[in-house]
Specification:
Strands 1, 2, 3, 4, 5, 8, 11, 13 and 15 form a 9-stranded mixed beta sheet that branches. The chain is an alpha+beta fold. The protein contains 3 helices and 15 strands. It has a single domain, classed as Sandwich (Jelly Rolls). The protein is 18% helix and 25% strand. The structure holds 2-oxoglutaric acid (AKG). The site of 2-oxoglutaric acid has 11 residues, from strand 5, strand 8, strand 12 and strand 13.
């Protein structure tokens, strides 16, 4: 299904917009406070709960059976839940601005829910090596629906979006299912020497978001409290889909087309 929808989100005040663009270019990640209004957030939260009750065929449990909580992921549900697309329309002016792109397409949505007590961390990784996309204009918006304390938030290595591409592996078994062994450098062991990296991370309230480049190295710990997050993935002008020899994560048919969000002006 193809669609072309207008953006609804705010045009940022000039000073803030300039500051965010500078930080994003340097660090590959920024936190934007209070971006999503409460009514839209409520609609997204209700859609997420319906999504969890009725997962798609792509849904996975990313925690082991002995985890005291549960880490659940699902992908590509924007055609089932209008609120996901509405969140993308709201985010589009910000995302276009950060990417420096006049075009913004919603590539996919990725649901990441850690139930209370989940011990499983999300390992350090970049997103783009799992995709079928080349180009620089590939950006995510991580939108939590519950308060997230600093110790359970998304963490990002500042500047890692400048490259290189690093080896994608399955989160639980560390298998190389995408690029072959040795084709890309391994992700560094960030936890072994956190002081060697400039690690960004923000305690967040619902409405706050973190935007990050698809090559920015990122991770998250487990979560004592329930932590529902919808991460939206966007493509800009210079992003092109390429054919891969493997099943990408998520697997999106080559013939799929994505909602184009029309920016004002
Ligand atoms: O929410 C998490 O645990 C990790 C998020 C993530 O990896 C992503 O949004 O790409």
């Amino acid at each position: 299904m193809s669609s072309d929808v207008p953006a609804t989100g705010p045009v940022l005040p000039t000073g803030l917009a300039a500051e965010l663009a500078i930080d994003f270019a340097a660090d590959g990640a920024v936190c934007v406070r209070g971006l999503v209004p409460a009514d839209l957030l409520d609609r997204v939260a209700s859609a997420v709960d319906r999504n969890l009750a009725d997962p798609s065929d792509l849904a996975i449990v990313a925690s082991a059976a002995d985890d005291p909580g549960r880490f659940v992921e699902d992908f590509c549900n924007w055609q089932r839940f209008d609120a996901y697309l509405d969140l993308a329309r709201h985010a589009a002016p910000l995302i276009g601005h950060l990417m420096g792109s006049t075009g913004v397409r919603l590539y996919h949505d990725h649901l990441l829910v850690k139930e209370a007590g989940t011990a499983t961390p999300t390992p350090w990784h970049q997103d783009q090596p799992y995709y079928d996309v080349e180009g620089h204009h590939v950006v995510s918006m991580w939108c939590p629906l519950d308060p997230v304390p600093r110790d359970a938030t998304l963490e990002l290595v500042a500047g890692s979006h400048l490259g290189p591409w690093l080896m994608p592996r399955t989160f639980m078994d560390r298998e190389a299912r995408w690029f072959g062994e040795g084709e890309l450098a391994e992700v560094p062991d960030v936890e072994a020497d956190r002081h060697a990296h400039r690690i960004l991370g923000w305690a967040l309230e619902p409405g706050d978001v973190v935007c990050f480049h698809a090559l920015t190295l990122h991770a998250a710990r487990g979560s004592a409290d329930r932590r529902r997050v919808l991460s939206l993935r966007f493509l800009g002008d210079d992003a092109v889909r390429v054919e891969r020899r493997w099943r990408t994560s998520p697997p999106i048919p080559a013939t799929a087309s994505f909602p184009v969000v029309r920016l004002a002006g």
